[in-house]
Design goal:
The protein has 146 residues and is of the alpha+beta class. The protein has a single domain, classed as Hotdog Thioesterase (Thiol Ester Dehydrase, Chain A, Roll), CATH 3.10.129.10. The protein is built from four helices and five strands. A five-stranded antiparallel β-sheet has the order 1-3-4-5-2.
């Protein structure tokens, strides 16, 4: 069983510089066809400072930094038992190419169902830009199969 002592634990911050080519690649990978996600002129015409980060892109900051794997090590959860249960986003500002986004996460809850056959880790995160403005809030639910 995952020790509930980790509820409230703050994970190390993850920083990501948003790069145009990576934003374009991600937009294409998710099937985004709106021109403002791949064409700078279209993005600026739509009111963005540069290419905007496509929906769900910010989720990758902790994956890139290794923080997600640090979390699994901390909780002693083998990757083979892990399922991605849920992901939600609340957006406050656009993040665009050239921005530096910092994601700070905290473990909000740990609980189980089916007499411990399934354990759930709820993690919330705040993504801020280089001006320390709130860009997005994210919620992740990880499921561990025992």
């Amino acid at each position: 069983m995952i020790d509930k002592k980790w509820i409230g634990h703050v994970l190390p911050p993850s920083e990501m510089v948003l790069d145009r080519s990576r934003l374009r690649f991600f937009a294409k990978a998710i099937g985004e066809t709106a021109p403002e996600y791949t064409d700078v002129a279209a993005a600026k015409a739509a009111g963005y400072a540069d290419l905007p980060a496509p929906p769900t892109f910010l989720f990758g900051a902790e994956l890139d930094s290794g923080t997600t794997y640090q979390l699994l090590d901390l909780l002693q959860v083998p990757v083979a038992k892990l399922l991605h249960g849920e992901q939600s986003f609340s957006y406050h500002l656009s993040a665009c190419a050239g921005d530096t986004v910092t994601v700070q996460s905290v473990i909000d809850d740990i609980y189980d169902k089916k007499n411990g056959a399934l354990e759930f880790v709820v993690k919330t995160a705040r993504a801020t830009n280089q001006k320390n403005e709130l860009v997005a809030e994210m919620r992740t639910v990880l499921v561990v199969r025992n």
